[in-house]
Amino acid sequence: MKDFTSGNVSKLIFQFTLPMLLGNVFQQLYNVVDSIIVGKVLGKEALASVGASFPIIFTLIALLIGIGSGFSIIISQFYGAKDIDKVKRSIDTMYIFLFVAGLLVTVFGIYFSEELFLLLQLPKELIPQATTYLNVYMAGMILFFGFNGTSSVLRGLGDSKTPLYFLILASIFNIIFDVLFVMVFNWGIAGAAWATVIAQGGAFITGIIYLNRTHKIMKFSLWNLGFDKELFIKSLKIGLPSGLQHTFVALGMMALLGIVNTFGTDVIAAYTAAGRIDSLAMMPAMNFSQAVAAFVGQNLGANKIDRVRKGFKATFIMSNLFCLLMTAIIVIFGSQLMKMFTTDPNVIAIGEKYLIIVSSFYLLFSTMFTTNGVLRGAGDTLIPMFITLFSLWIIRIPGAYFLSDKIGETGIWWSIPLGWSMGTLFSYLYYRTGRWKTKSVVKQAV
Question: What is the rounded distance in angstroms from the CA atom of residue 337 to the CA atom of residue 357?
């Protein structure tokens, strides 16, 4: 566990971010390897089917992820205030919520899987494979929530190293099972989904056993969980705006996929492969955002506003330096990166153009996420939600629809930095007002 309320600000944030970044790189790596195996072994149709599933999966889990982030913020602030009893009760309440809600999401996702793909205008030849992949993935959703919930709690407590070990374990086994199920057993696209489910489930169970034996605060027992209504309501107030934001963002991703789907299998496959690379490249900015959120939560809980400002500045600089490096790598090696997923020259060309356009604006993405990380750590999630929804639904999606009609699929790619521009501008302007300082759960920190 890490105490952010004293010590060198830049060093603390970087040391906390690095294990988290390595863990998420491993997590994204097995998504990349999964797509490489699917694309190379099963073909571009299977690659496109996997890509079409992820916006639906994200939409189904988005609300719960957002609400879960409310628990993480509360845990971080109570830990900063040294109120360990409320930390433990918050953890118990979060697990009960995630497991019950996860079961409901699983049932809904499996029952309506085919209808969701039809709604997105997915080419009919891709629907059988896409439905198979989605159904298997949804079957392991409770394990997914348990795995990610545990990692989120540990980060809220200032421990980013233990989640790294879980992610490395899951990543290694996911790759092994991918090769075994798809290339050896010939289970097709279902094998790729089962590889992810089994790997994450195994990492969750192994992690819980380890934590119960070694961790001072993090003790998990399915039969002794206690639900605290008051803490649930507090976390809901903080997490619900973020959950709604995630949900509308996910719906936006589905809307964009609906536009992409109208351009056929090659564009869908390119969008999937380029999206995997893009997600990996954006990891540093996202992890620095998570780190500064935990940093802000603890320091507001300890009533140290000056350290919050220093944390924002340090995170801004470090995150943007990483993003400049990612941009350079992608611009130089974009074509070679696409060739890892497919040998189809048209898919490679489409994906390379996506990568060059989007990566050129990573600095905007990094600035937006750093600013939003400060706001989230303070417990101020409502205004960022409206800003995100505005940049997505008023700028990006209409922009994608309009530009794609004029210049083809390239217009969809240009709509991405267009949305980031507006999100960055309004997030920073709101940060400058300072209103977020009044949103702390631990009132003595105001």
Answer: 15
